[in-house]
Design a protein that fits this description.
Layout: H1 2-30, E1 90-94, E2 97-102, E3 111-116, E4 119-120, H2 124-137, E5 141-145, H3 150-156, E6 172-177, H4 184-197, H5 199-202, H6 206-209, E7 212-213, E8 225-226, E9 230-235, E10 251-256, E11 258-259, E12 264-265, H7 270-274, E13 276-278
Antiparallel strand pairs: 1-2, 3-4, 3-13, 5-6, 6-10, 7-8, 8-9, 9-10, 11-12
Helix pairs in contact: 2-4
The protein binds zinc ion.
Zinc ion is lined by residues 81, 83, 105, 111, 149, 151-152.
C-alpha cells in the first residue's frame, strides 16, 4: 500500500515539474527581442531628460511694486467711472421749466474703461505718476475722478467745455493726497522731481524735465504747469467743484498732452470717448 502511494506521489511531482519547465520555455520563446538587447548610449549623447524648470518673475509695469511702503499700488481699477444709479436725477431748468433730467450712469459695473487695441486702457503715464507720488510722499493718493463715461461726465459737469474732457478718453485724472491735503506744493515737487530724476526723460531733454507756466486764460486762479507730456492744474477749495470733487480740499488735475509711445499729441475725440463696452 505504501509503495502504491509513493508511486502516485512521484508521478504527481514529475508532472508538476514538467509543466513548470514547459511554461519557462514558452516565456522564453515569446520574450521581446528588445528585452535581450542591452540599451547603450554614447558618452557624448545629449541627455533626453528635461532640465530642471526655472521660475522667473514677469517684468513689472512701472506702477507695480509697492514702492509706497504699506500703501497699496494704484492700478487701473482706481480709474473706473465714479457714476452711480443711486445719484438722483438733476433737473435742467430754463425759464422756470424743466428742460431735461440728467441721469447718472449705472457705475463702473455697467461699463468698462476706454477700450484700445481690444483692452481697457488708461494712459500709462497717469498710473506711473500717481504711484510715484505715493512712493515719494509715502502718503496715499486719492483719485476722485479717473475715467468718466459720457453720461457721468455730463452728470458731474454740464458746461460745454467739459463735454470734451480728457476724462472721457482715460487721459486725465483728478486727485489729492491724503495727509497732504493742505500742502499741494509737496505733491507738485514730487511730480517735478520725477521728471528731473528719471533717466528716461533726461535722455529726451528739457521739453520733459522742465515745466513752464501756462499763460493763457484758464478757469482757475493758479497758472497751470506744463511740459511736453502733461498739463497740471491746481484747483483751490473754491474752484472746480463738481460731482466728482465734492470734498473741501485743493486738488490736482493732470491731463496727458503727448503720448510718447505713439509719438502723437493726445486730444479728445468723440469716437474714443464712446469706445468702451456696455455690460
Ligand atoms: Zn459711467
Amino acid at each position: 500500500m505504501t509503495r502504491i502511494f509513493g508511486a502516485v506521489l512521484l508521478i504527481i511531482v514529475s508532472c508538476c515539474l514538467g509543466m513548470a519547465a514547459s511554461k519557462k520555455l514558452i516565456r522564453r520563446q515569446h520574450r521581446s527581442p528588445l528585452a535581450s538587447c542591452p540599451i547603450s548610449r554614447a558618452l557624448d549623447a545629449p541627455s533626453i531628460l528635461p532640465s530642471a524648470l526655472k521660475t522667473e518673475a514677469l517684468p513689472a509695469y512701472p506702477w507695480e511694486g509697492n514702492r509706497g511702503g504699506r500703501i497699496s499700488p494704484i492700478t487701473k481699477e482706481y480709474f473706473r467711472c465714479k457714476g452711480s444709479s443711486l445719484n438722483p436725477p438733476i433737473p435742467i431748468i430754463s425759464d422756470g421749466k424743466v428742460l431735461e433730467n440728467l441721469f447718472d450712469c449705472h457705475g463702473a459695473d455697467s461699463h468698462s474703461l476706454p477700450i484700445r487695441h481690444e483692452k481697457e486702457f488708461i494712459y500709462p503715464i497717469l498710473l506711473e505718476l500717481v504711484n510715484e507720488i505715493q512712493a515719494s510722499t509715502e502718503k496715499p493718493v486719492i483719485i476722485t475722478s479717473g475715467h468718466r463715461c459720457p453720461a457721468h461726465n455730463r452728470y458731474v459737469d454740464l458746461s460745454p467745455k467739459n463735454q470734451a474732457s480728457k476724462h472721457l478718453i482715460g487721459a486725465e485724472v483728478s486727485f489729492y493726497v491724503a495727509q497732504l491735503e493742505r500742502n499741494p506744493e509737496v505733491v507738485l515737487n514730487a511730480i517735478f522731481a520725477f521728471y528731473r530724476s528719471n533717466p528716461r526723460y533726461a535722455a529726451v531733454g528739457k521739453a520733459y524735465t522742465e515745466f513752464v507756466r501756462y499763460d493763457k486764460d484758464v478757469d482757475i486762479s493758479t497758472k497751470p504747469w506744463i511740459n511736453k507730456e502733461i498739463f497740471i492744474k491746481l484747483y483751490l477749495p473754491t474752484e472746480g467743484r463738481n460731482g466728482d470733487n465734492r470734498h473741501p480740499f485743493p486738488y490736482f488735475s493732470i491731463q496727458v498732452r503727448f503720448d510718447k509711445d505713439t509719438n502723437m499729441p493726445v486730444a479728445y475725440s468723440p469716437a474714443d470717448a464712446q469706445h468702451f463696452l456696455r455690460r
